[in-house]
Amino acid sequence: MILVFAESKDGKFKKNAFEIALLGSQLAKERNQDCAAVVLGDHHQPSELSGYGISKIYHVNNSALNDFDDFAYRDVIAGLANELGANTVLLSHTALGKALAGRLSVRLEAACISAVKGFENTGGQLRWVKPVFSGKAFAHYEAVAEKSVVSLIPNSLSVTKAEVSPEVEEKDVEFNKSKVELVERNVVTGKVPLPEAERVVSAGRGMKGPENWDIIEELAEALNATTACSRPVADSEWRPHHEHVGQTGIAIRPNLYIAIGISGAIQHLAGVNNSKVIVVINKDSEAPFFKAADYGVCADLFDVVPKLTEAVKRFKADNG
Amino acid sequence: MNILVCVSKTPDTTAKIDFTADNKEYNEKGKQFIMNPYDEWYALVRAIELKEANGGEVTVINAGPASNDPILRKGLAIGADKAVRIDVDSRDSYHNAFQIAAYAKGKNYDLIVAGKETIDFNGSIFGSMLAELMELPFISYSSKLEYKDGTATVHRDVEGGVEIVKVSPPFVLSAAKGLAEQRIPNMRGIMMAKRKPLEVVEAVEAGERTRIQEFELPEDKGAVKMVDPEDMDELVRLLHEEAKVI
């Protein structure tokens, strides 16, 4: 049995919930096992997970689980995994997953393999493929334990639907809470969070100042992308800290990363080098970022970015 | 406050990444090694600041061979009071957390800190494993920590912002950018570090739970395709037809 933990926010599944369900069902098919999902807290529609290959959804419908608490989540997920005899528990490598995976694995006496991008089956031996050395290489991991807790980097799989309609079962599992008290949450709403964004428009010091960000916002809006920035921009407080991508900020792997006015220092590349397609716009033809790019435009960003926005809008108008 | 800071040795940020001929291990030949930046810049420095403000002692700890001693000496030069090395070849995050938990249990640390991840294996699991082994609360990815009247107020980074939590010691914390500012050891610190204790302790029995079978380098991307700045329709066409991302 494979158990996937599907994350929710405000009673709705996060995008990574569908991805982790899909990974679980792919692994289940490979091993000829069943895959169940667990959903925690108040939830509008747990059955929304239907169609991603899950055979059963367990809903622990208790509002005390609405906010993340690592003790409570550990108790419920480990409790359910033990009850079901699950040998693999899958999570997303999100802020929540990073806080929980290690703890859960110790409780389950399981191997813990975090931040994977997928698995491969080599002659019956399952190996998890994980970016290492800040995206500069990959390692193939094997579990040396009967059970495994594995976390998947968001945006690693393209989510497609399959025809399965799982039953939803309401479930009670006992838990204790930690002594950590959440006093305030200060999070932007209404935007796709950076680690889950399929398209990201990112800008650096070449922007000259925070007052010039309109052209970045406009391009991002045209592309339905999330905005990001380089370290000097966040350090100068031109943009909020949570937008900073790179070694010391967050690591992302969108389908499209457009870097505008960012030179491409090795520490910045470490956070974005697993992006599927990289476009670099920079007026300095010697900018190191061009070496890591798929497409480059060597020009003044203030001139070329509005033109790109117009071109995207024309494309969208022509292609509905 | 008595604080334990867990530090790792990693290849330098700019070190070339290549592997032994069988692709089983990182090729250490000719490489520079450093203290994992998140351990050094954020975890250790914030620990020293807390000690300076509240009294107590900062211990840096590493589970590794004698060749890791320079990392611990650097921790002492930056301002830790003593260093401990558990004499073992660390095998994976679990093995490492198990060794450090075995040492720390019963020593009544108020706070145990490590960086949010190491820059070599990027796992982000050590802190929460250690917290579970020690049966302590854990705050991950902390970018701010204030301590007053026995309570810590901590910012933890989450997608799109921060959550602010309150917790009383003892607890385990992983450190992210913002928690402190890097300190460069001065000559006096380096001289004093030589006289500070570096204790070597025996490892406990423990196994690993994961194994790396193989490393691989990413495929070469090929040369960048330059697009005429006057023809952004062409770039959009390439992103749609060739790259298939819009």
Give the number of domains of chain A: 2
SS-based structural class of chain A? alpha/beta
Beta strand % of chain A: 25-35%
The helix-strand sequence of chain A is EEEHEEHEHEEEEEEEEHEHEHEHEH
CATH topology type of chain B? Rossmann fold
How many β-strand runs of chain B? 13
**CATH architecture group name of chain B:** 3-Layer(aba) Sandwich
| CATH C-level class of chain B | Alpha Beta
**Amino-to-carboxy terminus distance of chain A:** 44 Å
Q: Rounded to an integer, what's the Rg of chain B over CA atoms?
A: 21 Å
Shape of chain B: globular
As a whole number of angstroms, the C-alpha radius of gyration of chain A is: 21 Å
Q: Would you mind describing this structure in some detail?
A:
- The complex is a heterodimer of chains A (320) and B (246).
- By secondary structure, chain A is α/β, with parallel strands linked by helices.
- Chain A folds into 2 domains: 2-170, Rossmann fold, CATH 3.40.50.620; 194-318, TPP-binding domain (Rossmann fold, 3-Layer(aba) Sandwich), CATH 3.40.50.
- Chain A has helices spanning 15-31, 70-84, 95-107, 214-223, 231-235, 266-272, 289-292, 301-318, and strands spanning 2-5, 8-9, 12-13, 35-40, 56-60, 88-92, 111-116, 118-122, 125-132, 137-143, 148-152, 167-170, 181-187, 199-203, 226-229, 256-260, 277-282, 295-298.
- The longest helix of chain A has 18 residues, at 301-318.
- With 246 residues, chain B is α/β, with parallel strands linked by helices.
- Chain B has a single domain (2-215), classed as Rossmann fold.
- Chain B is 27% helix and 30% strand.
- Chain B contains 6 helices and 13 strands.
- In chain B, helix 2 (69-78) packs across helix 5 (187-193) and helix 3 (93-104) runs parallel beside helix 4 (126-134).
- The N and C termini of chain B lie far apart (54 Å).
- The relative contact order of chain B is 0.18.
- Strand 10 (137-143) of chain A pairs antiparallel with strand 12 of chain B, so a sheet runs across the interface.
